[in-house]
Amino acid sequence: MRDKNLPLTETVYYILLALIEPAHGYLIMQKVEELSGGQVRMAAGTLYGAVENLMKLRFIQPVRSEDSRRKVYAITETGMEMLRLDFERMNHMMQVTKEILR
């Protein structure tokens, strides 16, 4: 049975992917835009709402930072597992679609 948090939204998927290396808010926004090829642009409010939610789900966590003014986040084991499961789900969709559209 599939986890109730799947499928991930495109935004959440890119945030988790961006946080494989710890990052602060502004860097997360930049990485998401870059990883998505400019398809996903986030306002600060959207990002912080998503960050709060992802921390509640324990997909990400705050980590120590040299810069006390910035909160830095990193993906957790749970977050990595969700990313992997959603990647596998999408990969399966791609494979069956390729076969059918051939």
- The CATH level-2 architecture is identified as Orthogonal Bundle
Give the DSSP E fraction (strand runs of 2 or more residues): 5-15%
- The helix-strand sequence is HEHHEEH
Shape: globular
- Our Rg estimate from Cα atoms comes to 15 Å
In helices, the fraction of residues equals 55-70%
Name of the level-1 CATH class: Mainly Alpha
Poorly predicted runs:
none
Major pleated sheet: 3 strands, antiparallel
Helical element count?
4
The CATH homologous superfamily is termed Winged helix-like DNA-binding domain superfamily/Winged helix DNA-binding domain
Strand numbers in spatial order across the main sheet: 1-3-2
| CATH topology group | Arc Repressor Mutant, subunit A
Give the N-terminus to C-terminus distance in angstroms: 29 Å
Plain-language structure description:
The protein is mainly alpha-helical. It has a single domain, classed as Orthogonal Bundle (Arc Repressor Mutant, subunit A), CATH 1.10.10. Helices cover 57% and strands 10% of the residues. It has a three-stranded antiparallel sheet. The longest helix has 25 residues. It is globular. The model has no long low-confidence stretch (mean pLDDT 95).
